[in-house]
């Protein structure tokens, strides 16, 4: 298996205990995971993977998505944002919507 060019990690709010507890999961981030996986399949995007991750310690900005390895962090994720992120990936660009700037 080749390394993905874009690995989207969607916060699932998991704590070290395995418990799902936090802002992102309360805002339906688990459904976003399914949505993103379906979109990647429907669009037949090679080199794009989607996984759930534990709490990213940015809870007030959740649901949070990381585009790895580029290191782009997105806040307040929705299905519409996922569409925009995937559109940008298809266009070879960086999605600017809800991008958390380095400050
Ligand atoms: S629960 Fe998602 S960043 Fe903390």
UniProtKB/TrEMBL annotation:
Cross-referenced CDD domains: TRX_Fd_family
Gene3D superfamilies reported in the protein's UniProt record: Glutaredoxin
Protein name per UniProt: (2Fe-2S) ferredoxin domain-containing protein
């Amino acid at each position: 298996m080749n390394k993905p060019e874009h690995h989207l990690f969607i916060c699932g709010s998991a704590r070290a205990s395995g418990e799902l507890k936090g802002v992102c999961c309360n805002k339906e981030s688990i459904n976003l995971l399914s949505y993103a996986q379906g979109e990647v399949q429907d669009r037949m995007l090679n080199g794009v993977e989607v996984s759930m991750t534990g709490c990213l310690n940015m809870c007030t900005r959740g649901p949070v998505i990381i585009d790895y390895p580029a290191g782009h962090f997105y806040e307040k994720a929705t299905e519409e944002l996922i569409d925009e992120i995937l559109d940008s990936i298809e266009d070879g660009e960086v999605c600017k919507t809800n991008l958390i700037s380095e400050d």
